[in-house]
Every structure is written in C-alpha cells, then in structure tokens.
Amino acid sequence: MFLYAIPIISSLIGAIHYDINGKKRYNNVLWFCLFLYMTLFMGLRFGVGGDTIVYMIEYKYIPTIGNFNLNIPNRFEPGFNFLMSIGKSLSSEFVSFQLIHIFIINTILFYLISKYSKFRYTAFLCCIFVFYYYFATEILREALAVLIFACNYNNLKRHRWINYYILAFLSVLCHTSAFILFIIPFFTWIRFDSKYPFIILITIILGLLLAHFFTIFSGLDIIYNGINTYANNTSFGLFADFMNLCRWCLFPLLFILYIKFQLKVPIQFENMIAIMILLGILTFFYPLIFSRLSNYFKLFFSISFANGIIQMFISKKSQIRQFCLVFASSFVIFYGSQFLLYRYYIRLIPYYSIFNPVQIDRDNYN
Q: How far apart are CA 273 and CA 353, in angstroms?
C-alpha cells in the first residue's frame, strides 16, 4: 500500500510547491524522479492487474521479432503483437515487455501533461485517480491506442487529415476500439453551446434505441458477437451504472458549466470533453461498450480539470475557493471510489514485483 502512496504524496508536494506556490527550483528533478519511479514501479510488477495475468500467459506463445508474422494465433492486434515480439527478443521474461510498454506509456503521458498543463503535478494526480493504473495494468493494448490519439490531437485540431488518419490507423493496430477515431473528425463542431442540450437529448434517445441499431451488424458474425458480448453485460447493476454516469457525464458537465459560464474561463479541450460526456450518457445504457470508448477522452478531461481546479484554488474570491473545495472533494469521491467499490483494489493490492514474485487470485468478481 505504501508504494502506491509514494506517487500521490510526491504529486501533492509538487502541486503545493510548484503548481500553487510557483516555485521553480528542482521542479524538473522531481518530475523526472516521479517518471522514473512510476516506470520502475509498474514495469517491475509481477501479476499486478487482472488483465496483466492474461498477457503474461499469452506472452509465452509470442515469437521473437525474427519470427514475427501477422498470423500469430491470439486475439491481439498486430501492433501490440509486434511490440510483444520486441520484448520477447530481448528476454523470454514478461518483465522485458512490461518495461517497454510502461516506458512508452509514461513517456507520452508525462510529455503531454508538460505540454498542455502549467500545473503538471496536479494533472498527474488527477490521472492517477481517473485512469492511470487502469491503463498501466489492465487495458495495455487500448492504453497505447489512447495515448497515440492524444499525440494526434493537434492534427485533429488543425485539420491535418493525412497525418491524423495515419496515426489513427496506428491506434487501430494497437486496439480495435480505436475505430472511433475515424469518425471523431465529423464531430469536432460539438461544444458547450446552445445546441448542446439538444445533442444530449438526441444522445439519450439514441441510447434507448441502440439495441435495434445493433441488429444491423447481425450478418457480420465477428462484429455482432463482439457487440453482444459487451452489450449483454453491465458493470455491477444499476448503482454501478449510475456512478459511471456521475463520473463520465454529470460531474464533468457541472464542472465545465461552472468554469465556462460562471467564471467565464475558456475550456481547454472543450470538444474532447463534450464528446466524452455524450459517451458517458451512453455508458449508462451499455457500460462495457461506451466506457471503453470514453477512455480516449479521459486524459483531456484530467488535464482540463487540473488546470481549472488550481485556477479556482489560487483565486482571491472566497466563493470561488469554496466551490473549488466542493469540486475537489467530489472528484476524489467519484473517481477514488473506483478503487474501493466492488473490491477493484484486489487487482492492485498487494503489490508484488519480479524480486518477490507471488501469484495470487486477482479476481475481484468472486
């Protein structure tokens, strides 16, 4: 448990000393140490994370890069298989792939946070609560696709479509859920404006009618069976679905509305967050399908929230600071509860590394 506390404590210290107080000395040193710690902490883990165990098993059957081909008999995408083959060429131990994977994830994540946020310790702390361990230990394939898309954001924003679709295709090579990236350019007009309430209403109606829409794919067995697998499963019942609605729709919506219309502050990544909220609504109807698609927008929300909450905290107006406390507390409750509800923490705790490898049951559904 203490090992998980270190990045939280370090981020809090950095947030207070550098983000809030504006100090400069040793800022980059602490940032690099945090990057190095998270890379070794996650890269040297053993059997931590439910899906990690699945990848450990499949890794045994992955060929080295010299024998790589596109017909590897598993259900993984070719880009991810290729990365695993690189790891296998370095060592037959799964840890070599883990280190490569988390190095890529952390390099992109820390770079993007530094690029888009003046309050990078607060932003990373938000990432820990919102998605970090889920990306690092569970959805290894999709995490690569998501962060490639995050790097692709400027191409989307500036309408550099050739570059955008090349990187979108690279995301698909890591995880098939990235197909959503091919249609996002058609929704770049969505903002928190007068049209947004009507878009929300249409989204709710769409959620009610999706079951009929899915039958369009009934002739395509691979797609239809995949949809049915996710559509016929829910998280853990109505309460879990409601909490997901709060996390990915209601809370972000209230925060953004307050920042934009009450404080009159421009919203960073407004379009990305607006789309995430719409997917959050659909998550209530089909949790396992649309919660996966929401992953592509969580980094944008985390950075935007961090920037907004620090600006509120350093405000000289007491009312704004009071709202800051309300939003910050609600954030911790909504997103921190992901680890506590339904015993998800079992997938992360206790932590074992390659230096003390212990195989335990990580199934929190039992």
A: 36
Q: What is the dihedral of CA 143, 147, 152, 153, to 10 degrees?
A: 110
Distance CA 109, CA 96 (A): 20
Selection from 109, 108, 58, 107 nearest residue 87 by Cα = 58
Span 192-210, pLDDT tens digits: 999 999 999 999 999 888 8
142 near 80, Cβ under 8 Å? no
| pLDDT band at residue 224 under the 50/70/90 scheme | very low
Beta carbons within 8 Å of 342's beta carbon, 6+ residues apart: 236, 240, 364, 365
Residue 253 contacts by C-beta under 8 Å, 6 or more apart in sequence? 277
Query: What is the separation, in whole angstroms, between the first and last Cα of the chain?
Result: 22
CB 243 within 8 A of CB 282: no
Is this prediction's pTM over 0.85? yes
Residue listed under structure tokens 């090992």? 3
Distance CA 18, CA 66 (A): 47
Whether the Cβ atoms of residue 187 and residue 275 lie closer than 8 Å to each other:
yes
DSSP tag of 233? -
Cβ neighbours for 23, distance < 8 A, ≥ 6 positions apart: 17
Query: Computed over its alpha carbons, how large is the radius of gyration of the chain?
Result: 21
DSSP alpha helix (H) spans, the chain: 2-14, 27-43, 50-59, 78-90, 94-116, 120-127, 133-137, 140-151, 153-157, 161-174, 196-214, 221-231, 238-245, 251-257, 270-285, 287-294, 298-313, 318-340
pLDDT above 90 (res 162): yes
Least confident of 30-44, 67-81, 145-159, 285-299: 67-81
